[in-house]
Design the sequence.
């Protein structure tokens, strides 16, 4: 047993930093001998990120809850009516006598198992190419887009068909003087469409079919871009979950170190409470990271269109960091994007619509021919007729004006689409460039420098020149910087996907229908 004066001197020297904590622990009473089962300072120097087991944490709590042999126990313990000791340690006694460190808080229990299924995925790895192929065959919006193309093509077919002939039977003077009538016969009537109206109608709807095809292609880009976005988000959140778990190990080690320092008089009770708070906050952060990863994986499953079993993601988050040129990206977007091509095809369709409506007042010929029997003359006779509509008052002037207005509006729509794409590309390119710059500097400078600082502090600690909390602080800083690096990688991937994918996203929204404005499509037979 160490004499009180010697123990007090050693505590004072340890507080001033003149005596290593390990030397003080070697001279402490038997209560601290149980620390031999826990990782020592040398063991933590070799593997500072090793997480304490539950038995080790319980052992620390049990040792801290024991009475201190340097503190004399009272001769009598007054107990209340229920038999509970009334002389229990209280926070207000801090600074007056030795108090055991506060208990380690329990881990928070999740409200449900939202993130537990994906905590350790064990299925076969999923590649990005495999998921893109699954999405192309199972995403319902792609089926809708293809159905819209078929519908537009059906309109083109219908608009170019000739009108059906009309078969007519006629009888005259039936029942006069008890006879069967004067005339009985049949005739066929056919409308002959003039001015190439049917060809122009088919040409217009074929142009609208091309609009639907470009919209279907845009929808395919939306789906593929969304699959890529959610894939890289899931990859990033999976890596962030690993980093948060490493930070949890750091917080646990920090708590154990603070409790040891409290036991030897190098930390105050408030610092132990703060370490408890930091540990509990990090536990909650890990739970939130698990929930974020589960959300990203479920969103990826929704975009693919089939249920995916929890599995690791094989395609890496990191990739080629070659920068995308602004001028090339802008020229490609304006010249090749499905949005611009659909707007230009719609302009062509509106141009054909004007020609079709100009041809509309040209009258069609209605030809009728037939034969019958004249019972009064007792001979077979023929029937012939020709009729046409004279465009005297209505020569389709209102519809022509509407078609011309639609064409002018679509010309403005083409320009608006171009400017809208340029604006969105500028916004996305700024995010892309910022994320790319951060990724470069984090990968090449910040992370290597931070890790080198951690290694130097660790080596210095092994030579007893640096305190262990400084090593833990350097380790925490490294993992925090790595978390920022992963977040910038996610932002870089998202911007890269959108720029190379013509800024198209929202893969579960249905493709817009290529319905031209106006009343021309409200008639039973499109024209």
Sequence:
């Amino acid at each position: 047993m160490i004499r009180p004066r010697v123990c007090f001197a050693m505590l004072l020297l340890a507080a001033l930093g003149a005596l290593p904590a390990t030397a003080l622990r070697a001279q402490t009473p038997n209560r601290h001998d149980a620390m031999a089962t826990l990782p020592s300072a040398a063991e933590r120097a070799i593997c500072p990120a090793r997480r304490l087991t539950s038995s080790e944490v319980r052992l620390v709590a049990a040792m801290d809850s024991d009475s201190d042999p340097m503190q004399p126990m009272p001769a009598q313990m007054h107990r209340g009516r229920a038999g509970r000791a009334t002389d229990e340690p209280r926070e207000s006694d801090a600074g007056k006598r030795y108090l055991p460190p506060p208990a380690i808080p329990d881990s928070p229990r999740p409200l449900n198992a939202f993130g537990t299924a994906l905590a350790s995925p064990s299925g076969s790895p999923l590649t990005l190419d495999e998921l893109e192929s699954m999405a192309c065959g199972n995403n319902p919006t792609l089926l809708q887009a293809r159905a819209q193309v078929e519908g537009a093509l059906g309109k083109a077919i219908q608009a170019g068909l000739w009108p059906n002939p009309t078969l007519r039977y006629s009888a005259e003077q039936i029942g006069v003087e008890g006879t069967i009538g004067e005339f009985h016969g049949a005739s066929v009537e056919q409308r002959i469409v003039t001015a190439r109206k049917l060809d122009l109608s088919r040409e217009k709807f074929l142009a609208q079919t091309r609009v639907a095809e470009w919209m279907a292609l845009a929808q395919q880009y939306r789906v593929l871009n969304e699959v890529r976005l959610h894939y890289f988000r899931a990859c990033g959140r999976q890596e962030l979950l690993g980093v948060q778990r490493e930070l949890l190990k750091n917080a646990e080690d920090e708590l154990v170190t603070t409790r040891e320092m409290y036991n030897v008089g190098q930390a105050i009770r408030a610092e132990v409470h703060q370490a408890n708070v930091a540990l509990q906050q990090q536990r909650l952060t890990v739970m939130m990271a698990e929930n974020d990863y589960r959300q990203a994986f479920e969103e990826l499953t929704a975009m693919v269109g089939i249920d995916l079993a929890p599995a690791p993601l094989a395609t890496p988050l990191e990739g080629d960091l070659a920068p995308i040129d602004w001028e090339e990206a802008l020229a490609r977007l304006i010249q090749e994007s499905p949005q611009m091509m659909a707007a230009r095809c719609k302009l062509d369709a509106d141009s054909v619509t004007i020609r079709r409506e100009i041809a509309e007042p040209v009258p069609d010929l209605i030809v009728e021919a037939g034969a019958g029997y004249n019972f009064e003359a007792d001979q077979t006779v023929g029937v012939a007729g020709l009729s046409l509509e004279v465009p005297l008052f209505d020569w389709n002037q209102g519809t022509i004006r509407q078609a011309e207005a639609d064409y002018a509006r679509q010309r403005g729509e083409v320009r608006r689409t171009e400017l809208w794409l340029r604006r969105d590309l500028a916004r996305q390119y700024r995010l892309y460039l910022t994320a790319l710059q951060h990724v470069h500097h984090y990968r090449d400078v910040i992370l290597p420098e931070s890790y080198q600082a951690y290694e130097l502090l660790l080596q210095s600690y092994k030579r007893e020149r640096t305190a262990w909390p400084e090593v833990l602080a350097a380790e925490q800083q490294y993992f925090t910087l790595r978390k920022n690096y992963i977040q910038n990688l996610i932002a870089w991937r998202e911007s890269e996907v959108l720029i190379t994918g013509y800024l198209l996203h929202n893969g579960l929204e249905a493709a817009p229908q290529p319905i031209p404005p106006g009343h021309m499509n409200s008639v039973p037979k499109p024209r």
In short: DSSP finds twelve helices and four strands in the chain.
